């Protein structure tokens, strides 16, 4: 009997190792590119990361400029401004340096350089016709996995709605991962981005599109993040913890690129669009409540998650092992300072109907969730997250 195992493939060349940022210039030069635009998180300026990246590029004889106009939870017009600079430079290489906001902006910028138009023209699935400019992504947080995914998410400045540009043409050519550049990430951001990666892993395991390949990657990510996130938050100079977190985030990104995500992401999007809540924080607050809701439809998957997190579940009935996974995620969030409710971050309960409406428009994660999610169910989860 032939079994369909999905169409899993890794399209991005991955370079991983301490001190890897110093090799950026050499890698860029070998790509055959002439000129570059470096799309960077402006917060990295004070830590010297942008300066180090530019020095490596300069030493390799590469020419280009830095674009630092990336906003948190980026707007579509951030892309257009970056693409305008890239066109002025005649850039054929786009480098993303930062968290998900910078890397998403960089990936979309590469698309505009070759396809033209505006970023909003490509929001949706498979609307990008031509390959973008060459890309190198350098994550400075262990969270989004954007360095290996085909998605770039933005907020429409006028409507406040969040949506993704989703196309195989967005897969980066090269992902350069250097755990040393994550050492300067403060505890709060480490916690939020780390739980973003954990949410990717948990939802990849339990998604309707999960396969044996994505399951293996996602469960490895759960183990790495579960074992190292507390250490990275409270001992930020622990390079081994930072290295394991970056690897965990990478594995979670590889898993979600194929398996997709679920209700936590759909419910998180309106929080970012309407309230500008960082995506990692929104996911972190919501994931225990979403797991609680999904548990009856994902007992086996949650039991595996509990085991990957080191919970003593051997010999337990599957349901009790699954319960342990929800408890373990909730405890992890509490330990690293994630708020336990939406009200703690200023979300208004009267806005639930608006949030529900926005969440249900994020159709791919909604349809990929292991348990059916419609208006009543979305409202129930939001209400639980206010208690």
UniProtKB/TrEMBL annotation:
Residues 12-179 form the Alcohol dehydrogenase iron-type/glycerol dehydrogenase GldA domain. The keyword Oxidoreductase applies. Residues 190-386 form the Fe-containing alcohol dehydrogenase-like C-terminal domain. It comes from the Bacteria. It holds the Pfam family Fe-ADH. PROSITE patterns: ADH_IRON_1, ADH_IRON_2. Keywords: NAD, Oxidoreductase. CDD domains: Fe-ADH. GO terms for molecular function: alcohol dehydrogenase (NAD+) activity; metal ion binding. Its cofactor is Fe cation. InterPro entries: ADH_Fe/GldA, ADH_Fe_C, ADH_Fe_CS, Alcohol_dehydrogenase_Fe. Belongs to the iron-containing alcohol dehydrogenase family. This is Iron-containing alcohol dehydrogenase. It comes from Desulfomonile tiedjei.
């Amino acid at each position: 009997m032939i079994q369909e195992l999905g169409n899993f493939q890794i399209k991005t060349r991955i370079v991983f190792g301490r001190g890897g940022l110093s090799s950026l210039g050499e890698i860029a030069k070998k790509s055959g590119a002439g000129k570059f635009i470096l799309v960077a998180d402006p917060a990295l300026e004070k830590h010297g990361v942008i300066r180090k990246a530019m020095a490596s590029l300069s030493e390799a004889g590469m020419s280009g400029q830095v674009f630092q106009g990336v906003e948190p939870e980026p707007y579509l017009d951030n892309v257009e401004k970056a693409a305008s600079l890239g066109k002025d430079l005649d850039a054929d290489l786009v480098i993303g340096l930062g968290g998900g906001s910078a890397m998403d902006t960089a990936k979309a910028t590469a698309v505009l350089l070759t396809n033209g138009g505006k970023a909003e023209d490509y929001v949706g699935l498979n609307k990008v016709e031509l390959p973008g400019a060459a890309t190198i992504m350098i994550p400075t947080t262990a969270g989004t996995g954007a360095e290996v995914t085909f998605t770039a998410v933005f907020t429409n400045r006028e409507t406040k709605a969040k949506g993704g540009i989703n196309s195989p043409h967005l897969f980066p050519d090269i992902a350069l991962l250097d755990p040393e550049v994550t050492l300067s990430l403060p505890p709060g951001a480490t916690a939020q981005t780390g739980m973003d990666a954990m949410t990717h892993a948990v939802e990849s395991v339990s998604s309707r599109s999960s396969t044996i390949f994505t399951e293996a990657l996602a469960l490895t990510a759960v183990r790495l993040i579960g074992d190292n996130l507390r250490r990275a938050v409270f001992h930020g100079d622990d390079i081994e913890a930072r290295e394991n977190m970056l690897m965990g985030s990478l594995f979670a990104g590889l898993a979600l690129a194929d398996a997709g995500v679920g209700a936590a992401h759909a419910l998180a999007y309106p929080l970012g669009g309407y309230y500008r809540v960082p995506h990692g924080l929104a996911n972190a607050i919501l994931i225990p409540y979403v797991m609680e809701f999904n548990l009856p439809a994902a007992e086996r998957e949650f039991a595996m998650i509990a085991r990957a997190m080191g919970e003593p579940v051997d010999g337990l009935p599957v349901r009790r092992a699954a319960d342990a996974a929800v408890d373990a995620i909730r405890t992890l969030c509490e330990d690293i300072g994630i708020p336990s409710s939406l009200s703690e971050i200023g979300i208004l309960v009267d806005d639930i109907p608006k949030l529900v409406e926005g969440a249900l428009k994020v159709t791919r994660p909604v349809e990929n969730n292991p348990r059916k999610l419609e208006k009543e169910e979305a409202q129930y989860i939001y209400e639980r997250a206010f208690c």
